[in-house]
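Exercise 7.
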Amino acid sequence: MQEELLTQKRDLAGASFKDWLSHMDELGEERGYFEPLGKRHSAILTDEGPTLIVTFETVEGIRQGSDSHEPIGWDIVAEKGWSNLSIIAHDDTWFRDKAVYGYFDRLVDDGFFEDFDRVVFYGTGMCGYAAAAFSVVAPGATVVAVQPQATLAPEKAEWDTRFPDMRRTNFSDRYGYAPDMTEAADQVFVLYDPLVTVDAMHAALFDNSNVAKLRCRHLGAHIEAELWTMGVLPDVIDKAAKGSLTQKSFFQAYRARRDHLPYLRVLLTRMEKTRRHRMVEMLCNSVVARMKAPRFRQARDQARQHIEKSRPSAEQLPQD
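Solution. The predicted structure, written as tokens, is:
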């Protein structure tokens, strides 16, 4: 037990990739198993209960997004009694690797997913693409994909020029076109900001009848981090794991944005740029009544000045 605690408390902030991966190997064996998938991916299974959360993650995302430098999947299932399968990409691969395909093929052949009462696939960005694409291995699963790409194949997504290094990657073979791979899922929830054009275009390609679009307006390119900070994302995955996630329940949880200052600042900035002074005043009145927010108090005063200046003077009013 002492050795286990020492292992868990190891500081990974300055660890090299090799040392970090070795540590994940140790912890993975404690939790269930750790398995390299070729040279560019790894799988870690936490075997706990009849609900399985399959998370797709990247080494960079794990090490930059977590103080513990541990997979987000571990945080998701902590103290829930759920199982977690974390598929980790060592770099930006979009999980387009025969070693990953073969791993999921073996899981299907072994009836792995049939051992669970409920399966949820989760990921964001390229990991959202993978969550959707590989969900085909577990028919009836729920997919929660944040800002997913549908594909990066030029013939279908030549308008997405963000990832030039992936232009030659094959997205047309097995597990390729993510929207097609979700047809057997029970429900697919696609989260995106409709004001981010490329994300909205990818979301539009997910057009099966089992897809629900969850529009997170004004959250921009970092939806996962913002929703996690608000406490919304853990609630979303919890509901997905219990089979109670709906568009209505999402937007009820998403009301937390009303008290989330980063979101409110973005909203304020957009209103100020479009010179919607009365809307600025209304927003700022709401914010300063609930929290200390000097930026919003100042913006409200400026908006009121603009409104006052725009009012016609007595000389400008029509005379009888």
